Amino acid sequence: MNKIIALFLTINFLTISFYQNQNSKFEFKEWHKSPNRSPLFSTIYPHVEWNEIKKIKLGLTKKNAEFDFQYYHHPVNAIIFTKSPENENYEIALKLSDDKTKVIDISFLKLDQ
Known about the structure:
Structural class: alpha+beta
Oligomer: single chain
C-alpha cells in the first residue's frame, strides 16, 4: 500500500513540475526589447511556425536554427513572430550569446489582436 501511495505522489509531483515548466516557457523577461512599430522603421522580422517555436531551446545555435537570428536592430535580443494554435500572436525575443550564435534566454510577449 505504501508503494502505491509513493508512486501516486511521485506521478503527481512530476505532472505538476511538467506543467509549471510548460507555463514558465511562455514568460516575458525584463531584458525583452520590442522592435519599433513605426512605419519609418520598417524591418522585416522572421515569422516562424508554432511547431518550430516549440523546438527553440536554450543552447540553440544559429547553425541549427530553422530561421534567421534577426538581431541587427536590437543589440539586446533577436526578434521573431509567431501565431499559436489558439490564434494568438506572439513576439519572441531571443537573448543571444556575445558572439550572436547561441540562444541563452527566451522571452515571450503576447500581442494584442
